[in-house]
Amino acid sequence: MKPAVQGALSGLLLLSCAGGGSRSPSREMMRAYAEPQGFERFETTEGPFITNEFDYIADNPFLRTKDNPLSTFSIDVDTAGYGIARSYINNRMMPPRSSVRIEELINYFDYDYLPPDPDDERPFALHVEIGLCPWNTPRLLARIGIKAKEFPPGERPKVNLVFLLDVSGSMNEPNKLPLLKKAMKGLVERLGPGDRAAIAVYAGAAGTVLPPTSCDDKRRIYDALTKLEAGGGTAGGAGIRLAYDLAQAYFDPAAVNRVILCTDGDFNLGVSNRAELLDLIAGKARTGVYLTVLGFGMGNYRDGTLKQLAAKGNGNYGYIDTIEEAEKMLGEELEAALITVARDVKVQVEFNPRAVGAYRLIGYENRVLRQEDFRDDRVDAGDIGAGHRVTAFYELILPDDPSLADIPAPDALKYAPPAPEGGAAPFSDELFTVNARYKPPEGNDQETRLLSFPVKAPGRISGASPDFAFAAAAAAFGLLLRDSPYKGGADYGLVLSLARAGAGADPHGYRRGFIKLAEAAEALSRK
Predict the structure, then answer these.
(1) CB atoms within 10 A of CB 61
(2) For 66-146, where are the alpha helices, taking DSSP H only?
(3) Which CATH number describes the domain made up of 159-338?
(4) Residues 114, 125: contact at Cβ < 8 Å?
(5) Contact criterion met (CB below 8 Å) for 371 and 22
(6) Strand partners, 202
(7) Model confidence over 144-198: pLDDT tens digits?
């Protein structure tokens, strides 16, 4: 094992919690977070990867704590980025840089975070773990974890689902419509007598294949799915409107009401005003009808559009490239995919400038918020489903680290507040404080609730967890796939060493699958 890995695994502080002055952003922060608008187009004549579009991502920079003590972002439970990277690599191609969202690679895997106690009214628990940064020792790596509450077996709310299925001509491939039909049948198998499902489709036009039907009558639902065939154009906008009309007409206030859009991403909105459709989706979400988006296949894939639709619909975005992935997302993680336990979840970390010289949020580039947004209950953010876990990493530079001199400092401000005079420093034993805001899942309550979790600076670092090592492996893998300027000493040997050290029992084989994927990426990188 590499010395860097040994260092990371020999030093760790583990903290857990089950519950839990504003400054204007500096010019440095605003410049760093102002991302170019556009997309990255990846073209090839090999296999199914013809023309796909991914929104441009610029890596989050390091920020000096004394100038920017607050880091604010919306949580993200999407996992599509991992499936997309896997699909490219399995087709012997490296994924485009902007398709690699590091947080989606990390959050694809389950970690052993404890949920809140069953009698705790709070919808999620906060956990923090701190160790040495494997690719930049002696810097620190802080892992912030969220684990949502779970429902006891048989106690989940009933669901009222509308499947909106793309049956256009581009779906006529083995890993598209046939896989979609298998995935939907697997989902229906897990629905009970109190649940309902409807099927709407779109190609050249949109139509209803199956009106809302009790899942007592599974045979009728299976028959409707079996008869679906691909052909025609792509009128996605008309299909979404039809699906929401069905969901609204049969709305059940006692159930989870959700539209599940399944498409290969060759998505023609079918309306001249895209903002109008996004406003429709956001408006329906406010009435309690949420949207889940599942992508299938590649070819003319519009990743950014699908991710934006899911975000506006208070839902999640996944990518299904194998039947095993369908089993994972719509089987093992069904409640997380369908049942929201907290809305508009925002995280704000306040760093102590006496303990942290600079920090960098790894991933979440398109989820960064202004610090003022944290207290603004009107600002939309990500939602958490039952049992969901969310992980975020910060790389920390300590105040006495010589590399701190390499972090650009902002220009001197004429009206900067005076430096504090000598005396005892308040909270000098704290590294940072994690604050989280959320709204309850039901009703029109627009006022957020606050959880706060101070983290003490480690006096002594000892004993690392396998989960920390594996999550760090996923983060390092993303840094390499993105060829990030912040990858430091990361290489595929480090990724594989960390992943193998953190593989654990792995009952479903997902971590072993990651190891094989990293090995394949390493082989591709040598070509």
Answers:
(1) 17
(2) 80-90, 102-106
(3) 3.40.50.410
(4) yes
(5) yes
(6) 166, 206
(7) 999 999 988 778 899 999 999 999 888 888 889 999 999 999 999 999 989 999 9
pTM exceeding the 0.70 threshold for the entire prediction:
yes
Cα–Cα distance, 35 to 4 (Å, whole number) = 33
Rg of the chain, C-alpha, whole Å:
23
327-350: buried (b, 16+ CB within 10 Å) or exposed (e) per residue? bbbbeebbbbbbbbbbbbbbbbbb
Q: What is the DSSP string of 435-471?
A: EEEEE-SSTT----EEEEEEEEPPSS-----HHHHHH
Domain ranges of the chain: 3-151+342-410+432-525, 159-338
pLDDT of residue 169: 86
Tokens of 13: 């502080």
CA atoms of 85 and 105, how far apart (whole Å): 9
Closest CA to 434 of 361, 344, 520, 348: 348
Angle at 473 between CA 78 and CA 123, to 5 degrees: 40
Show the tokens assigned to 352.
């102590």
Length of the chain: 527
Nearest to 321 by CA among 300, 295, 291: 295
What is the token pair recorded at 481? 């796939």
